[in-house]
Amino acid sequence: MPCDVLAYKVAGRDGGCNKRYIKTCSNAFLNYPVITSREYAHRGSFKQLLGGNETEELLELLSLEKQVTEHTPPAFIWHTYTDQSVPVQNSLLLIGAMKNMRSRLSSICIR
């Protein structure tokens, strides 16, 4: 049965319609999403998710901007530039990756 994902400040694959759910996930609604485990990561989210067991391979896998494929569900993403917790670059990285794959996408980034 198809489902929609609504995620608010959720880290990594838990909020990003991971490959396990990709066949049934029909839409993703993401606000202030934690997307990347790299430069603009919300470190606390990844520490909580991984319990201090980070490896380069796992961090790469959990960087959702690097996991966008032709099977990525349509998404609505919104974020504010002034958020003190999750850098807006998280949303911008996913938006850019989805645009590169020509995925269906709507986004709002508010200054």
The parts where pLDDT drops under 50 for at least 5 residues are 12-23
Rg over CA atoms, rounded to whole Å, is 13 Å
Average pLDDT across residues? 84
Q: Record the strand order, biggest sheet.
A: 1-2-3-4
Q: Which structural category do the helix and sheet elements fall into? A: alpha/beta
Q: Please give the number of β-strands.
A: 4
- Compressed to H and E, one letter per element, the order equals EEHHEHE
Q: Count helical runs.
A: 3
The amount of helix comes to 10-25%
What is the multimeric organization of the chains shown?
A: single chain
N-C termini distance: 37 Å
Supply database-style keywords.
3 helices, 111 residues, four-stranded parallel sheet
Characterise the protein shown here.
The protein is α/β, with parallel strands linked by helices. The chain is built from three helices and four strands, in the order ββααβαβ. It has a four-stranded parallel β-sheet, with helices on one face. Helix 3 links the parallel strand 3 and strand 4. The chain is globular.
Summarize the model shown.
Helix content is 24%, strand content 23%.
